[in-house]
Amino acid sequence: MKGVGAVGVSEVFTGWLVEFGEALADRDTDRVERAFLDDSHWKDLLSFGWSYRTDAGGRAIADRLVRAWHDAGAGGIREAAGRTPPRQVRRFGRRLIEGFFDFDTAVGRGTGLVRLVCPDDDAPPLAWMLLTTLQELAGFEELAQTGLEYARDFAGPNWLDRRRQDERYADRDPDVLVVGAGHAGLTLAARLRQLGVDTLVVEKHPRVGDGWRRRYHALTLHNEVQHNHLPYLPFPATWPTYLPKDKLAGWLEAYSEFMELNVWTATEFVGAEYDPAARTWTARVGGTARELHPRHIVLATGSVSGVPHVPDLAGLSEFDGEVLHSSEFTGAAAYAGQRALVVGTGNSGHDIAQDLYANGAEAVTLVQRGPTAVISLMPSGQVFYGLYSEGPPVEDMDLVAAATAYPVLLQAYQFVTARMCELDRELLDRLRAVGFRTDFGDDDTGFYMKYLRTGGGYYIDVGCADLLADRKIGLIQAADIATFTPDAVQLVDGTTIGCDVVVLATGYQNQQEGIRQRFGDSVADRVGPVWGFDDHHFMHNMWTRTAQDGLWVTGGSLLDSRFYSRFLALLIKADLAGLLPPVRPLDSDRLP
Q1: pTM, whole model, 2 decimals?
Q2: Residue 482 and residue 338 share a domain
């Protein structure tokens, strides 16, 4: 594409948008098709059909979009207000024009983003990627947009009195019960509060943020701070690039207070039964004799699951030393002078092994159960996470990131992974030399696609790789273990490695098993697996309607939770407002 100035970029974008809008208004499928490349992609987040869906190919997009546009009563397409102006960017090896637009539907307001390719000749620009998203429901705009007033009453309760009364739920049930006061639960609760939805969050730990606070002493986030802002309250500009876990925990606790969220701490969700006739749950929570009867329950109990995975290791029951899951590991100081075995080579396994080594463990050995994708924090981490450093507001960059269709995402990850492997070649060669098995996916899409597909299988190196390569931390393969003995692990070749403590950094079970524990087999089987890609290349049963009416799941990274909490909150509000059609599990237009 020829370089164009700012005025030229705006003119090209506006010209395409006007033509596109007129073609949709005229229901002219052929003209709509001519606005797209043959290999184009369209992603929709709730705008048309209350689901997450992707379509590919100019004709297929035109056929469905024209029908969906008019079924939804859509119109009023226009350049987006308050968004980053159209700009020329380079993405995926192409020079593109990227611009935001707004539109209306019968139920609310949407925002879209389009990536245009301009041929080198004078031909009109064509859309390569189109994203459409529902941003708000008509008549149910966020409270912050309509203005909040506090009425002063000298003879009555003040603001704090009202907050304490609101938190007690002495005379009412919440509309929504959120299980878990980590970043996923709190961001959703904040969104729901802004939509006027009465929401109670229950947290089993004594304090908000304990899910982070209680993790191992050295934990620091591996991605940069600009990726991780929470809705409504971004982190201060004075904060470090990589957030320590206790700093994040404190922020979550403050966030719940600043956003006036109703949270019951030291209160564990035990289970619930659903009444389909009344469309309400009977929920039981520990720490109180009350039963709650919310319309909706949202599980926000972990990134992918809250149930630790404990593998069956031969002879481990005969081991006399301490055995604990990584979720129980709070720090290495207590293990100074001891011999430690850490099972698992993901982020937690490497970090825990490094923590033990740095705090004077006599010997530390990592057990590798499967090949692991390893990248350096610097420089490879910066290559991968560079998008959010471009300058536009995080809300705009979230849409930019979301606009990339799955097939293009695979190609982009393959390109970036190849680049990172080249940057990390020396490190990877040194790891392989000591027997460490690396793997960047069957399709070479790298560490982040492994996260999206399985929830783990990668390590962003902050120093442990060098310790392994220099043999300061030992390495054995799980397949080489014959059995555990009371004070050692014995290998198949007869070698024994003395051991005092075993840390199982072995991840978590699928969230479906967490559902099974709390709701029973019938509900868990009805919902199915959680996480991993569905047929429309979105996460199975995440941030969307499940096959169990009134049951939802949220989680993922801080970025995932920030972005998708908007759509999950809109779905729940739409249901409470009577806008959402009944659950139809086999309808792919409503359930992804």
Answers
A1: 0.92
A2: yes
